[in-house]
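Marked as duplicate of an earlier ticket. Keeping the data here for the record.
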Amino acid sequence: MRIRHIVTAVVLAVLTPIAAGVAVLMHPQPAFAYHVQSGRLSLFSDKPFDTEKSKSLLAEVDRRLRLASLDHRDGEHRIFVANSYWRARLVFLWNFGAGGVNYYPLTRNVFIRESDIDNDRVQRTAGPVPPPRTFAYYAAHEIAHSLTGEAAGPLSYHRLPAWIREGAADYIGLAEKVDFEDLIERLRADDPELDPKRSGLYLRYRLLVSFFLDHEHWSLEQLLASPMPQPEAEARMLAAFTN
């Protein structure tokens, strides 16, 4: 009996903080006092912001999402901006330090680090992140993870190679065409900006996704159903641009 009580106490000690953490990620609204909604997008922050500017910002996020064939415009997406250190620690967990985070399939809520919402900027220690990685980009990128996850399904989504998961989110988040010739030349020259491990950017992945969607005319659904290894994808792209 004593052993059973000890095991129960240990299990509760482990599961209670996990359950509390899940509850926070699914229902963080009480920690974010400022809120505005525009259509199916809601913005929450722990600091005040200009309502009209934020609605324009949400309209831009919505525009980027609507360009994706995966966006069926159903359900609400909530964006939470964690400006204070303790809130960022609370919702970013092991992703602390990232610009944004998505916990699909647990919730459709996405979380963005300290931001200047009125000026469409995400803040880092060194200052605002420069364009084109604006607040609208980060928000659309993180919501895009939900869209691609829902299209692929939880198990298939998490089995996708990083170049597809992050590349598709970046493709939707930036919503702009890439310069294939310039980026492929830089890729061949081993430009560090195209190495995600060195730069922290997903430019290389977006280039690959753009190649299949814009050059080869695949659909996003087709890409998600074909978890091609990155070396094979790069070989196909480089072969297509060989003079």
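See parent ticket for discussion. The longest helix spans residues 2-26.
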